[in-house]
Amino acid sequence: MSRLFEEIDRRDTPIGEISVRRRLEPTLQIDVYEVKLGDEHLMSSIFTVAEEELARLGLAAVGPDVGPDGIDVVVGGLGLGYTARAALEDDRVRSLHVVEKLAAVIDWQEEGIFPDADVLTGDARTRLVEADFFACVADGTPFTAGEPERFHAVLLDVDHTPRHVLHPSHAAFYEPDGLERMAERIHPGGVFALWSDDPPDDAFVASAEQVFATVAAHEVWFPNFHTGGEAMNTVYVATV
After folding, report:
1. How many CA atoms are closer than 13 Å to the CA of 197, on its beta-carbon side?
2. Engineering a disulfide at 165: which of 36, 65, 85, 159 sits with its beta carbon 3.0 to 4.6 angstroms away?
């Protein structure tokens, strides 16, 4: 049986001390992997439905005539890898660039600490990129050398919500000017999709509608064993 609790690693990063730990969830009797920034939870393996739906809903909105030879995808935020692995399930994906600011999170994926890490790292389509997603979009620099000039889909899961950001410098991204810079890096007919921990935000939708051809806010519901009921996240899907 797994230990009740184990801290696997702890690192200093530009945004503070982060740690990865594994604990036994007594109710479900499963191992749960968590990454924390100080005392704040960043990532967890216990609720992953919405992270996977970010990829599925986002890629489903890429038009059938877009990328006839395959689609190039960016995932902003590696996390525990659930969004990226779900993206790889789409046979149209020919390249997957996963942009992660924290080297430690990439190391933990490459070291096989996270569940099913080999599915991601063992796929030739995957490239794990250490870069600041928001800074690259803001100044127009490539995430990495040799990347496509434009992508067919960008799937973003870094901040908790467009209003609850991990760093103040991220806030401008969610305004029309920031979203316009994002749209410039996506092929016509392509998609920008965003995960949020909150219910649909009408103000954010209004900002996105100033930039994108279509914007939809999908409510993603999943069982919450803590409450015995259901919980909900939002996946925004916008087309260029």
Report:
1. 12
2. 159
For 191, the domain range is: 47-239
CATH of the domain at 208: 3.40.50.150
Using one digit for the tens of pLDDT, what is the confidence trace for 82-121? 999 999 999 999 999 999 999 999 999 999 999 899 999 9
On whether the CB atoms of residues 235 and 193 are closer than 8 A, the answer is: yes
CA separation for the pair 206, 198 (Å, rounded)? 16
Task: Answer whether residue 195 is part of any domain.
Answer: yes
> Which pTM was predicted?
0.95
Cα separations in angstroms, 44 against 7, 48, 69, 205: 14, 8, 35, 27
Question: Does 108 map to a domain?
Answer: yes
Within a domain: residue 30?
no
